Amino acid sequence: MPPVRTITHGPRHHWFGYYDKFQFDPTNRYVLGMEVPFENRTPHPEDVVKIGMVDLKDNDRWIELGQTVAWCWQQGCMLQWIPGTKSQILWNDRRGDRFVCRILDVETGEGRTIPSAIYALSPDGKSAVAADFRRINDVRPGYGYAGPADPHASDLAPRDSGIFRVDLETGETELIVSLADVAKMGTIPGDPPSSIKHYFNHLLFSPDGSRFLFLHRWRFPNGRRRTRLLTANANGSDVRIVDDNGYTSHIIWRDPRHILVQSEQPSHGVANYLFEDKQQGEIEVVGYGKLHPGGHLTYLPGNEWILNDSQPHRVTRNQNPHLYLPRTDRRVSLGEFHSPKQYTGEWRVDTHPRASRDGRLVCIDSPHTGEGRQLHLIDISGIVG
User: Fold this and answer.
1) What is the mean pLDDT of the chain?
2) Among 5, 92, 348, 362, fewest CB within 10 Å belongs to which?
């Protein structure tokens, strides 16, 4: 197995969250993270999380940078390095009854606030798209933020809620895809449209910034959810239904025209598929039998290797980050990391593997050392070269 180093320690707990953001700075020296004094309960509106970074070249020193009260267990506060910058980061926070975004230069200490929370950044770092975190919190605890209630909670598909474009330089915000408009596109045959509650989640720009993807989800009164994958131009136009089987989960762009998706298709059942970004486009199964179908998918730089993980095993509760090389059908395990049974549901700890900018290091979240959730560094340079 490749060498593993724990880079944060108790008694406080540390993690990063989702897998599709820059956790490493451009030099691969600093690793972003969050710090919290408790675990295993739903966040309250006034629970503070500390924002910081680990200096990998100074004995893994924790450097505190800020704080937030707008966060969740699975995706944190959207903390990340801003693309195209050397030392700027951002994260979501709350000011009064409004969710906002804090931008900080970690070298100069200069900061500013954007009057809107963000979800995903464009590759040039100048704009973002955002979902309505109030609505997400109402329909999917663990992914939204505690605090202001959803003003459209009784509306199944509100016209004033959906996906917003945010200018990170001016703070200007505009609604570009509404829930009402996407709901009019219909749902999966057999789903009664009059009783389902619509929301958007998991937004991500394409590598060239021309389009973004998002999951259109709806919840039935009994709590059951269905999902389909859609894409749109950066301005919200040309909305396409790419995968409408109802099962779509973890997703990542391979290139500006293809998306790797955890889905369920007639050819191989539940597996990972490469979708063409078009309606009724080509679909190709990827890594069947070797690339875990329930994991969090990313491509290492160069798009040769796929980084993935697994859910806790039903007996051992071990999680298995791994690499997969499609051109040779090669799978390489990065270790087995135990997740105690108290880490389930909303406050589970998925490893969510994230790669460094040069693709030679991987950082995961895991509670396997007995100190609660902490950050762990895996050196994969001996595997990927």
Assistant:
1) 96
2) 5
- The whole-number pLDDT of residue 98 equals 96
- The amino acid that residue 170 corresponds to is T
Task: For residues 103 and 49, give the distance between their C-alpha atoms in angstroms, rounded to a whole number.
Answer: 16
Query: Is 16 within 8 Å of 365 (Cβ atoms)?
Result: yes
* Measured distance CA(24)–CA(3) in Å, rounded: 18
Provide the residue type at 357 as one letter: R
Please indicate whether residue 23 or residue 196 has the higher confidence score (pLDDT). Answer: 23
**3-state secondary structure at position 249:** coil
R_g of the chain computed on alpha carbons: 20
Residue 302 has which token pair?
């160069």
Residue 4 contacts residue 343 (beta carbons within 8 Å): no
Rounded to an integer, what distance in angstroms lies between the CA atom of residue 260 and that of residue 286?
Answer: 8
Cβ atoms of 319 and 339 closer than 8 Å: yes
Distance set, CA 51 to CA 27, 148, 251, 356 (Å): 19, 22, 26, 19
Dist. CA 202–CA 270, nearest whole Å: 19
Residues in contact with 184: Cβ distance below 8 Å, sequence separation at least 6, in sequence order: none
Tens digit of pLDDT for each residue in 269-285?
999 999 999 999 999 99
Task: Establish whether the linkage from the previous residue to 11 is cis, with ω within 30° of 0.
Answer: yes
pTM, to two decimals = 0.96
User: How open is the CA angle 373-332-19, to the nearest 5 degrees?
Assistant: 40
Give residue 298's pLDDT.
97
Task: Tell the residue number behind the tokens 């990313």, with chain if given.
Answer: 298
Calculate the alpha carbon distances from 213 to 59, 76, 242, 243, 385 in Å: 39, 20, 9, 11, 31
CA dist., res. 208 & res. 218, Å (int) = 29
Give 35: exposed, middle or buried? Use CB within 10 Å, 0-12, 13-18, 19+. middle
Count Cβ atoms below 10 Å from residue 125 Cβ, excluding itself.
Answer: 18
Farthest CA pair distance, the chain:
58
So what's the pLDDT on residue 193? Answer: 67
